[in-house]
Amino acid sequence: PGVVALYRPALDYLLIDLAHYNPDKLRGVRNLVALIAQMEQVERNEAIIDLVQQLRDLAQDNPELERTLTTWVGALIKRNVGKDFDLPQNIDLKGVKMQLEKRFQQWFREHEQKGLMRGREEGMAELLERALTKRFGPLPDNVKGKIHHASAAQLANWFDRALDVQRLDDVFMPDVH
Q1: Are 152 and 125 in contact (CB under 8 A)?
Q2: Measured distance CA(133)–CA(170) in Å, rounded
Q3: Which residue ranges make up each domain of the chain?
Q4: Tens digits of per-residue pLDDT, 156-168?
Q5: What mean pLDDT is predicted for residues 130-146?
Q6: What whole-number distance in Å separates Cα of residue 5 and Cα of residue 70?
Q7: Cα–Cα distance between 90 and 115 in angstroms, integer?
Q8: pLDDT tens for residues 71-92?
Q9: CB contact set of 128 (below 8 Å; sequence gap of 6+)
Q10: Environment class of residue 113 by beta-carbon count within 10 Å: exposed (0-12), middle (13-18) or buried (19+)?
C-alpha cells in the first residue's frame, strides 16, 4: 500500500506442469526445457546418462549454463536416486556423465550381489525346510517363518544341527559357547 507498492516486484512467469507432457513427444524435441522435463520424468538410469550428454551438447558454448546445469543435475540425481551422490567441485557435465556411468555400474553390481545372496538364502531355506520335513514330519508355521527369515550362516548352522539332533526343537536351540 502507498509508497511501498511502487517497489513491489511485478513479475510475469509461466508455470509448466511437466506431468502433462508426454515423454515420448519430448524425446523428439531438442531444446533445454524439453531436456529438463525429460530429466524430471526419467525412469531408467541409462536414460539419465543420455540426457546429460544432450544437456552437455546444448551447453557446450556457454560455461555458465553448463555450471548451472551441472549443479542442478547433481541435486536432481541426489533427490531421485536417494544414494550418496556428491559431485566434486569444478566438475563439468562430461565429468557428471562419467561419474554417473561409474556409479550406476557400481550400484548394479551391488544389487546383483544382494540378489544372488538373497537367492542363495532362499535356496538354503527351502533345502532346510525339506530336510526337516523329511526327518520330523510337517513343520509348524512358526518354524517355517523362522527358517525363511534366517541368515545364510544361521541356516547352515541349523542344517548341521539337524543331522545330529533327535527333536525338531533342538535344531533351533541357541548356541552355547
Answers
A1: no
A2: 14
A3: 2-91, 122-171
A4: 999 999 999 999 9
A5: 94
A6: 38
A7: 36
A8: 999 888 888 776 677 778 888 9
A9: 147, 155, 158, 159, 162
A10: exposed
Core vs surface per residue 80-89: b (16+ CB within 10 A) or e: eeeeebebee
Q: Nearest to residue 53, comparing CAs of 105, 100, 106? A: 100
Instruction: Return the number of other C-beta atoms located less than 10 Å from residue 40's C-beta.
Output: 13
What are the distances in angstroms from CA 125 to CA 114, 159, 170, 172, 174? 16, 9, 17, 14, 18
Residue 106's identity, in one-letter code, is Q
Q: 3-state SS of the chain?
A: CHHHHHHCCCCCCCCCCHHHCCHHHHHCCCCHHHHHHHHHHCCCHHHHHHHHHHHHHHHCCCHHHHHHHHHHHHHHHHHHHCCCCCCCCCCCHHHHHHHHHHHHHHHHHHHHHHHHHHHHHHHHHHHHHHHHHHHHCCCCHHHHHHHHCCCHHHHHHHHHHHCCCCCHHHHCCCCCC
**Whether the Cβ atoms of residue 87 and residue 96 lie closer than 8 Å to each other:** yes
